[in-house]
Amino acid sequence: MENNAVNEAFQTVIPVKEPSYKMIALRGVVVFPGQTVHFDLGRDKSMQALNKALECDEEIFLVAQKNPNATDPAPQDIYRVGTLSKIKQLIKLPNDCVRVLAYGRERKEISAYTLIKPHFEVALKDFADVSGDELEIEAVKREVAAQIERFRKLDPKLPTEIEAALSLTNLRHFIGVVGTYVMKEDAQKQKLLQLQRQYDQLEEIYAYIIRECEILQTEKKISAKVRESIDKNQREYYLREQIKAIHDELGDNEDELREFRARAESKGLPDYAMEKIKKEIARMERMTPTSPESGVSRTYIETLLELPWNEASKENADLKKAMKILDDDHYGLEKVKRRIVEYLAVHRLTNSLKGPILCFVGPPGVGKTSIVSSIARAAGRELVSMSLGGVRDEAEIRGHRRTYIGALPGRIINGMRQAKVVNPVFLLDEIDKMSSDFRGDPASAMLEVLDPNQNSEFKDHYLEMPYDLSKVMFVTTANTLDSIPAPLLDRMETIELSGYTYEEKLQIAKRYLLPKQLAANGLNEKILTVPDEAMNEIISKYTRESGVRNLEREIAAVARKVAVKVVDAGKDKKNLEFTVTKDDLPEYLGAPKYRSDVMNGTDEVGLATGLAWTAVGGVTLNIEVALIPDGKGEVTLTGSLGDVMKESCHTALSLVKGRAKEYGVAPDMFKNNDIHIHLPEGATPKDGPSAGITMATALLSAFSGRKVDRRVAMTGEVTLRGKVLPIGGLKEKSLAAFRSGVKKLIIPLDNKKDVPDIPAEVKDNMEIVYADNIDSVFKTALL
Q1: What does each C-alpha distance from 779 to 622, 697, 746 come to in angstroms?
Q2: What is the DSSP-derived secondary structure letter of residue 71?
Q3: Could you tell me which of 615, 616, 596, 618 has the C-alpha nearest to residue 540?
Q4: pLDDT-based confidence at 9, cuts 50/70/90?
Q5: Which of 220, 427, 578, 609 is least surrounded, with the fewest CB atoms within 10 Å of its CB?
Q6: Exactly one of 313, 374, 690, 740 is catalytic; which is it?
């Protein structure tokens, strides 16, 4: 080789006089002058050449290698003509690679290799452009432009840079653009680069484009003939096979879509649901599996297919069996049990799956939530529960529209998915604890759910179609009705659950709570025994509630302390037996937490026993009246009284003043004495009008000097005319009177209708007196 300094056998170099340049052998890239190209480098030899050139701020010689697969090319594997280029930008890539952006400046030819290892350095000689005759060049350039336009029509995918190249006045740039974007093979590009005369380059481009145009035209003719020869069925088969092949190559979900179709056909969906699923499957077929929309459609289809549309659980038609299940699980709650048996009987006669909508209202711990699971078992239905406490977003009920990212159906539809049948028992717990804010009012959304005339076409925002909830037995629970909107309350059948009597609590503790805690703490009936006397002591002095939650906690505390003693006994624990008596309770539970409501020890003047309703049941309420001599008739009210109760005090005082003469009270007593009305336990807020007759009785007793019978308790609102008006919570108040030991209970005559709700043990041990005016109250209560 002329002026070649390389001894290829021993990889040595011979010094030359020309300046040397760092060189990079490129794989699959041919750089033309005037073109900006980017390529990735990863070979050590190329990286070293690049770094050396950057350190010296030199241009670098970029040349293609003959075999792109050669990892360590020798000089004979590299073309001689390349492009001297300027490095514009470097971007570091993973795996120690670099992306280089370079601008080709001018063509050069290798005259000698001055260095081979650790990187290539070469001496270069000029490879100048030979322009030739301008007329010939312009003529061939126009022909090339015409053929490019023809080529573009045949191949619409041709890059837009080609059109821009047609307007370039710089012939060298024109050749570079066309060579880069039109020619496909590296050998053809290198051949174009090595042609020194510009006319020859244009002629090479012209010949290449004509050949490519002919090939494209021939392909189109062949394709047209093939298409014409394939009839409609064959074409569909061909296209389906092509689509299947493409899906297989891309790893698409054709099998999943077939499964969706099969599940939809076998599920017996309504027409509107089936049509919706088919549309979504058709959409998924046109999407790539990795697109976000594909995931949204997949989730939607799966939701529709997982919902029950026709599946229903077989209900229990045996009323005796249902009643036995309810009795075994819960003591008392007769109203609830009776209503469920009535529903099952109606279902047996009508064979209708339409479910009732019940609302259990009562204080905490009376078994509202736990009875629902027993209802499900007794009715032979699945149970789904949903807590509404703190729910303040309408979307919790109706779901989100699918336009939102991460949209999901509401909790009603999710509950139906969980149940997998169209007729479950659906518990909506704490419906009185819902609230509303700027996100909507969930209570208003519940109107549709709990309306028997609307819930057959319940519309969840996510489903975008009606869903039938009419076969669901909805059961809601609440502690109070005050916070439930009237329209929502109107849609539910309300069943009130009041507190348990002492006898009912004793039976619940013996039958359910004690065995449950014995098992939970590793004990049995032989090891721990709690007599009725001790259990009654726990009920009366260690708990004060309408339900039995705290009672269960106290029983658990006794069981845990016995468990400690059993473990401490070691090997002798088989023979251990513990009987917790009434006197042992302070050792296990500490000092009593509450004093029992007992009637007053003596008959006193100005002291009357009233009754009050609380969230945990009824309580007795002593009302004290004291007269302070040498006063001015001022009235003092103490005991944390609310506005209504204060008004009731003034009403009772005015009533007694108006009837003073009838009962022998001098009018001057009201002027010469200050009046102090006090209700003990001043830290406890008190309000309501039901203590009216009790206040009037205590006031008349104080002014007349007549004692109040301590064996009498009373409740009722009083008017200025002396009429006794009805009150609420009679059952709870009567239980409180019974627990305190009184023998007579005065109630308004209008509350006679509520007496059947009072437990039998209360009515058997206490005389109930009906009063329609204050005179009959005074006659019964004052001695």
Answers
A1: 19, 10, 11
A2: S
A3: 596
A4: very low
A5: 220
A6: 690
Q: How would residue 701 be classed by pLDDT, with cut points 50, 70 and 90?
A: very high
Q: What is the DSSP letter of 78?
A: B
CB 774, CB 714: distance < 8 Å: no
Nearest C-alpha neighbor of 708 from the set 767, 779, 773, 649:
779
Angle, to 10 degrees, between the axis of helix 292-306 and the axis of helix 254-267?
A: 30
**Would you list the DSSP string of 99-140?**
EEEEEEEEEEEEEEEEE-SSSEEEEEEE---B---HHHHHHH
* Residue 232 annotated in active site: no
Quick: pLDDT tens for 276-292.
888 887 887 777 666 77
Cα–Cα distance, 688 to 401 (Å, whole number):
47
Residue position matching structure tokens 């627990």: 739
Instruction: Please give the mean pLDDT across all residues of the chain.
Output: 83
Give the separation between CA 41 and CA 87, rounded to whole angstroms: 13
The pTM assigned to this predicted structure is 0.57
Contacts for 691 with CB less than 8 Å, ≥ 6 apart: 610, 612, 621, 623, 645, 648, 679, 715
Q: What is the DSSP string of 549-568?
A: HHHHHHHHHHHHHHHHHHHH
| Rounded-to-integer distance, Cα 397 and Cα 469, Å | 13
Q: Which residues pair with 747 in a beta bridge?
A: 770
pLDDT on residue 240: 66
Q: Where are the beta strands (DSSP E) in 187-343?
A: none
- Residue pair 356/472 in contact by the 8 Å Cβ criterion: no
Phi, psi of 311 (to 5 degrees): -70, 130
Q: What Rg do the C-alpha atoms of the chain give, in angstroms?
A: 48
If DSSP states are collapsed to H, E and C, what string results for 440-473?
Answer: ECHHHHHHHHCCCCCHHHEECCCCCCEECCCCCE
Q: Which amino acid is at 318?
A: D
Find tokens 């009936």 and name the residue: 525
Q: Residue 15: pLDDT band by 50, 70, 90 thresholds?
A: low
**Closest of 429, 419, 431 to residue 472, by C-alpha:** 419
CA distance 132 to 135: 9
Check if 267 is active-site: no
DSSP per position, 692-747 = HHHHHHHHHHHHH-PEEPTTEEE--EE-TT-BEEP-S-HHHHHHHHHHHT-SEEEE
- Tokens 């057959």 belong to 456
Pairing state of beta strands 712-714 and 744-748?
A: parallel
For the chain, give the percent of residues with pLDDT over 70: 90
Phi, psi of 43 (to 5 degrees): -75, 140
**Which of the following is catalytic: 45, 141, 267, 733?**
733
